[in-house]
Amino acid sequence: MSSPVSSQAHFVGIHLSGDTLRSAIVSGDGTLVDRREFPLDREKLMEQVVRTVTDLRNLAPNFQSVGVAIPGLVNRITDQVVDSRELPATVREDLHAEFMNLTGLRFELENDANAAAYGEYQVGAGRGAQDMFYMSIGDGIGGAIILDGKPWTGTSGLAGEVGHITIDAEGVECVCGNTGCLETVASAPNIVRRANERLDRDSTSSLSRLALNKEFTASDVAHEARNGDDFALMMIERTGKYIGTGVASVINLLNIERVVLGGGVMEAGDLILNPIIKEAQRRAFQPCFEATEILLATLGSDAGAIGAALLARDAQIT
Ligand SMILES: [Zn+2]
Description:
The protein is an alpha/beta fold. The chain is built from 10 helices and 12 strands. It has helices at residues 45-59, 95-103, 112-123, 183-186, 188-201, 218-226, 230-254, 270-283, 286-290, 303-317, and strands at 10-16, 20-27, 32-39, 65-70, 73-75, 80-83, 106-111, 132-137, 141-147, 150-152, 258-262, 293-296. The strands form 3 sheets. The chain has a 5-stranded mixed sheet with strand order 3-2-1-4-7. Strands 10-9-8-11-12 form a 5-stranded mixed sheet, sandwiched between helices. The longest helix is centred in the last third of the chain and has 25 residues, at 230-254. It is globular, with a radius of gyration of 20 Å. The mean pLDDT is 93. Zinc ion is lined by residues 164, 174, 176, 178, 181, 183.
C-alpha cells in the first residue's frame, strides 16, 4: 500500500472490462498518482466498485467525484447504461443512483472508448491537439471522436463505431450482424483466426514458429514478428493494411488533426503502425492525409481509468 497522497484535489477513475477492474487516482493537473488492477467479479460488481472507492478514499481522502468507464452504450444525459454485451450487469436502472447512495460521491458514467480517448486527449498522445479520433484495437475495435475538447457521441451516443465499418463486402459475419467489418479481420481474436486458417492451408507457413503452438494469441503473433518470423510479420503487416484502410476512411470523413491508435493489438508498435500509415496514405484523399498525424497511444491499459477520472474532474468544473 502506498502512503496517502497530498491533500490537494484528486479524482478517481474506474475502468470496468469483462474481467478486470482498473482504477486510477489523478491529481488536478492530470498526473497519475496511483493505479490498481483486480480481477472483476461480475456477480459482485456493485460491491467491488464501492469497496475500491472506499479503499482509495483512505489513500486520497480529498476527492468528491468518480468517473466510471463501461464497455457499453452509456446515455450521459440519463446516466444509464443502455446496452453492454461485455458486462450486462451494468445495465440496470439504478446503477448510477446506487453508486452515489453507497459512497456519497458524485459519479460520471461514460463509454470506455470515449473515456480512453479523453485520457489520451488530455494527457497522452492527443495532448495539444484540438480534434482527435481515437481507435482501440483489442478483443474488439472501438473508436471515439473528440471535437473541440469534448467527446462527440452522435445523435444517440453511438458515434465512433469504427470497428463496424465494412472492409470486405464478401467477408465473414460480424457480431453486429453485418459481414466483413474491420473488427472481423483486425481484432485480436480475428488475427488469430486468420493466422490459423493460413497455417492450415499453406505448407510453407507451417514452418512458422506459430505453427508449433496451436493455442497462440495475437500477442504471440506480435512477439514472433518482432523475433523475425516471416509469417508472423506478414500477418501483422496485413492486419496493419486493414486498419490503415479504416483509418483512411476516418481521415477522409473527418479531416481530423490527429488519429491515436491504442489497445492490445497496437502493442506491436511500429511493426503495425508503419503499415497502417502506409495504407492510410495510399488510400486517403492526399490533402486530408497530409493534415493528419497518426500516432500510437501512450497510456496503455490505464487510458480508460485515467480518462474516466479526468471526465469526473471536468464534469465538476462545468
Ligand atoms: Zn460489425
